[in-house]
Amino acid sequence: MNEQQKQSLYDNAKRWVLEAGEHIRTKMHQPLVIETKSNPDDLVTEMDQDTEKFFAEKIRESYPDHKVLGEEGFGDDVKDLDGVTWIVDPIDGTMNFVHQKQNFAISVGIFKDGIGEIGFIYDVMKDCLYHAKRNEGAYKNDQLLPALANSIPLEEAIIGLNSTWAVPNKKVDENGIHRLIRKVRGTRSYGSAALEFAYIAEGIMDSYITMRLAPWDIAAGIVLVHEVGGKVTKANGEPINMLDKQSILASNASIHKEISMNYISFK
Ligand code: IPD
Ligand code: CA
Ligand code: CA
Ligand code: CA
């Protein structure tokens, strides 16, 4: 992909993200059809589905040779990341969308041969767009986000953490998580993985730890966090597989290893 092709891909993606967000805002107060998926708390609405359909149609119309990997099943059965793949979460934070009518995002990551090239995280109700191109910096609207601080003590860090991992659970040793909670300055839980990545990129949160995310939750966020010098791996420090669900540790690089080595152990 040359610079011109990358710019035009970016421009189209940005236009579609803003258009999808505008559509959601205009329909925000209409009654919603809400269904559940894997369990009673796993919600999906017709807005999640319609928004993913919108992206899949736009992408297929303009880029028939690109692949689409999406949460709601309107994409392709993606088996590898050869060529260009759009990784789309039409609404990240569906529970917030349903219950709060805010604090959700559209997340679109564009990968070429497995490498994250472009990322958009759009906080729809705040009309706030986080965006990045690889090697060209990350932005919040028109503002370039500075590189993350070189060194922060873990005692002064704010970490994003879902309470699920602090109570007895099947995946991670909650005692390590308790020690981490006592060590850091504070914890937050925003209910949208994409926004938590955006906040790390913005430097207003220092780490985000969770035990099971899908590629669409993290694709755009990875591009953003890398651009400001942050690190994203599985919670044990291993590299991420963009075709699989996995644990995630996204952080300011200076505390990444310390968290994964000293505070996270799997059952
Ligand atoms: C969810 C949100 C949530 C995270 C869940 C995700 P969805 O995505 O990002 O914050 O804790 O693991 O599945 O289903 O609202 O797109
Ligand atoms: Ca979902
Ligand atoms: Ca999601
Ligand atoms: Ca979603």
From TrEMBL:
The keyword Chaperone appears for this protein: no
CDD domains in the record: IMPase_like (cd01637)
Matches recorded under PROSITE patterns: IMP_1 (PS00629), IMP_2 (PS00630)
EC number: 3.1.3.25
Keyword Endoplasmic reticulum: no
InterPro entries for the chain: Inositol_monoP_metal-BS (IPR020583), Inositol_monophosphatase-like (IPR000760), Inositol_monophosphatase_CS (IPR020550)
Enzyme class: hydrolase
UniProt keyword terms in alphabetical order: Hydrolase, Magnesium, Metal-binding
PANTHER family the UniProt entry points to: INOSITOL MONOPHOSPHATASE, INOSITOL-1-MONOPHOSPHATASE-RELATED
Name by which UniProt lists this protein: inositol-phosphate phosphatase
Record organism: Pontibacillus salicampi
